[in-house]
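are you around this afternoon, could really use another pair of eyes. what follows is a protein written twice so to speak, once as letters and once as structure tokens for the fold. i want to understand how the tokens follow from the sequence so walk me through it. anything you notice is useful, everything is just below.
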Amino acid sequence: MNSTNSAGSTRKPSVIVAGAGIGGIATALALSRLGLSVTVLEQSATLGEIGAGLQLAPNAFAALDALGVGEAVRARAVFTERLVMMDAVDCSEVGAFEVGEPFRQRFGNPYAVIHRADIHTAILEHVRGNPAIGLVTSCQIDAIEQIASGVTVLARDGRRFQADYLVGCDGIKSVARELVVGDPVRVSGHVVYRAVVPTAEMPEELRWNAPVVWAGPNCHLVHYPLRSGDQYNLVVTFHSREQEVWDVRDGSKEEVLSYFGGIAELPRKLLHCPSSWRRWSTADRNPVDNWTQGRITLLGDAAHPTLQYLAQGACMALEDAVTLGEAVRHCDYDMEAAFALYQKSRIARTARVVLSAREMGRLYHAHGVERLVRNDLWKGRGQDGFYNALQWLYGWSADCCLATD
């Protein structure tokens, strides 16, 4: 709720946002638009995003529009024609659906792809210079302390930051989550290699204006255009033979090639395109029914980290940020009531995404008879059938994001 100072006037709560990724800066923007004072703490020395491309479904654009940055993101995005799954063993089409005008009419927004740095920059442009938002870099959080009157963050270099409330947007290795939930990370055993390739170095027959999944036995490949078609995002995933721990590091072409011997020559060409790779050992966490403790709540990957198979990680963080802002507005700045409403509105939906992503990974990586079953799943399904199946995911709207019943 609003605080009262010694002069008897009221002020709106102050909030620390831990983490300046897409979810963190979206949260800062959402709360600042309500007049809250926000301090964003980022462990990196610079503000930006690592990685390569990401996919933006209609629900992401609905959230971006609610934040006032939809047009800035659209200006940097590539709008695709369809989504495609191919069988990497025999090069047959498993399933595809159009994302043109009928899709936009159904869901109210397009489907697009974008470089992570570009969407981050588009939001950050609205955050920088905002007098209600302070950005602090090179801030490694060591501990978070909560007392009846507020929250204190202790940085590794000795700095202390205080606010009335804290939103943990600090990713899958969240310090805030360790305090609130304290559960282990679930290392999937799936390794992701990501690269960005100049279009001139992509095989001409694979320069499709679509996110394409080549599904193979215990592996898959994804490619789609970025930055006005000047580049292609390339992602390959496989089940590791090693005992994996969650990390990010440089990868090797030799390791990639060793996992893709069972796929056809056409998708295999993709493995020779990058000059360098980054390697992610992926992880998620089991869904929980509470991610709030007093003056602290979690958001994005800190609250519900998911595997990449639904391409919804960033989309869910954007939805979270908008929903949290709407909850604060609905609860008239009673922050603890807003935190409770926010998580009530988000837990079942985000848990469904986490669990559905795991199952989608199984479909992507099917082999033997399971592969044949997967290839039969979408036969004869019309476009409306695909749209109906995705209504729960893509039909999200800021206008009805709160569970107020």
Notes: The longest helix spans residues 335-364. The chain has a mean pLDDT of 94. DSSP finds twelve helices and 22 strands in the chain.
